[in-house]
User: Fold this.
Amino acid sequence: MTEIQEDFVQKRESIIIKGNVAAAYAAKSARVQVISAYPITPQTTVVEKLSEFVDNGLMPGTEYIKMESEHSVFAAVVGASKAGTRTFTATSGQGIFYAHEMIHWAAGARLPIVVAIASRGPAPPWNIWADFTDVISQRDTGWMSCFCSEHQEIYDEILMSYKVCEDHDILLPKFVSYGGFILSHTSKPVILEDQDLVDKFLPPLPNEEGWPHIWMDPKRPMMFGNLIMPSSFYYEFRLKIHDALIRAKEKIKNVAKEFEKNFGRDYGNGLIQERKMDDADIGVIIYGDLALQMEQAIDDLREEGYKVGMVKLRHFRPFPTEDIVEVAKKVKVLGVIDRATAFGCQTGGPVSCEVKSALHETKGTATVLPIINGLGGREVTLEQQKNQLKKLVKYFETGELPKDVIHGTLWDGLLEVE
Amino acid sequence: MVCWRLSKEMVKLKEALESCQEEYFLPGNSCCAGCGLEIALRWAIKALGPNTALVTPASCLNVVVGLWPKTAPNFPFTNMAFAAGAAAATGMSAAFKAKAYRFPGKEWNEITTITFAGDGGTADIGIQGLSGAAERNSDQIYVCYDNEAYMNTGIQRSSSTPHGAWTSTTTKGKDRFKKNLPAIMAAHDMPYVATCSISEPLDLYDKFKKAKSIKGCRYIHIMAPCCTGWGFNSEDTIEIARLAVKTGSWILYEVENGILTLSKASRPLLDPSKRTPLIDYLSKQKRFANISEKDLIELQEYLDHTWTRLEADLSCQEQYPK
Assistant:
């Protein structure tokens, strides 16, 4: 937690809640109009809490539909968003995979849906623990996606996300993900903002007319999604999605700034958050809940005299290429730590592969060492993270790769098999 | 007596035609000549009126409405993924409710949300979403236009294809019987389930009018023959649809809050002697050209059995809760 946040926790009223409950409160604060949901571990407490809110009349006017599958959940939010309402759902792992078709649909239709993801490892074997392969596997759908590293950030990021998604220059959906169980089921103090302040930051949808490009109204009949020939505008529509994602970087930065101004909590530039990078020789790029513990590891190693720093990657899509290029210039060795897999790519880790691609052809940048850890919820201790940093220090000092590098990537924390 | 009944019918037809002069599914669409779907949709929307938002999952309807950016429906129309028709309509009708709350007095909740899907999108890939919507009593009218195969992709078998019929994936005739989807939907205890045929437009019109007046999840299954897929001349679509009814192959009825009522065209057929011989219907369609004698007998037995079961259902009607 940054100093500013500690200050706020002391001065302002907070409640101790689970990460999932923080997501539910965010949906309530955002005054979502239609929620559709289907239970899946470890997302369940999001939908349970929302049920409680709706059943007790705490979200007046909100329609809550309990669907029969994730495919239908995403179809329902697509339908509801098309009619020009603010929509919300939450899911995890297998649920995302099942809904994949509709996830493409939501982005293709340019609908500003925000979805909370309590990330879990893909089966088989069954796994329900933290692993971001689920949300990262939706990389090419046109959705924005971001990682939260703590409870307060889940609440804050969902509010910020609606503001970004609903911007008429962007109009794209977004995943707000956080590690299953590690964040979803643990409790920490979260400041829930006054509704008036939230309404000022994120006003309820101002008019009936929905989004500028689509809304369902018999008074102004529109067709949506008709078959389009290769010679027509399909190709151009695809370009526009990419263009909007790239432009969203600026929007995300502005919204993060505005959020800090309104609520006093700092999320770096919105896309990344640096810590002790300016005079560092060794840096790591890390995301999700492990980033929070890594802050401690960095501080501890600094006390031991090592010049280490870190970058918390907040957004995976749009990928902050320019920022990554800049931070890579500051250090000599850059570890990129994934809690997800991208089988068969250069590094085996989705973010490390992305970073390598971003730095390609950029002179004077750090040497990248891809690291994978914590898959399927495998515990990554503070001690282990400090060791990762020390391995990077050794690599920097001697140029020797750690012994347990496999195909160029450090798979850290594997079980020892005889 | 006959004269009087005829004139009453004529008056009703005249009224219906006068009240629905407006066209909502416009000319210039790319339906095949003699398309059953086109007639079904045209009459359905005439009955529902323009204050309707339609969702259609993958089906012929996706294509026949016209290539982007041209479109034939004169009402809000959205294409949807194959399995997602009922669910998307659920979301849409929920959104109209939410809008009605947020913007009171604007009649957002007066809009009728309908899903218009083919038999594949209903009985096969879409059945989970439909069953979910029915169980939740999601406020929508789900319409299945049944042409008894995957016509849009080239006449492949669906679970709604009848026994013995040729399709491009049942080249020796289908070995299984047609899935009885209206019965499956009625088993959901929905407020309203009805079967229609494009050969009975007044009956269809009335059923849609009635469906519109009811809240909750309503299911209407329309027999909509496909000249291309079934192999008959395009001018015979109505005649084929009528034969389906007259032979008793396609039974017109309503199930309103659990109460089953046979519709006028099918009511006399409780008496087997009033049914047109099945062969009259089958022999007009090339898809049954090579049907084996065994399959023919089985089809007849299945038809008789269906009617026996229906009769049993009607006779125990008193036991149903009112």
The domain at 272-411 of chain A is CATH 3.40.50.920 (Rossmann fold). DSSP finds 14 helices and 17 strands in chain A. The first strand of chain A starts at residue 15 and ends at 18.
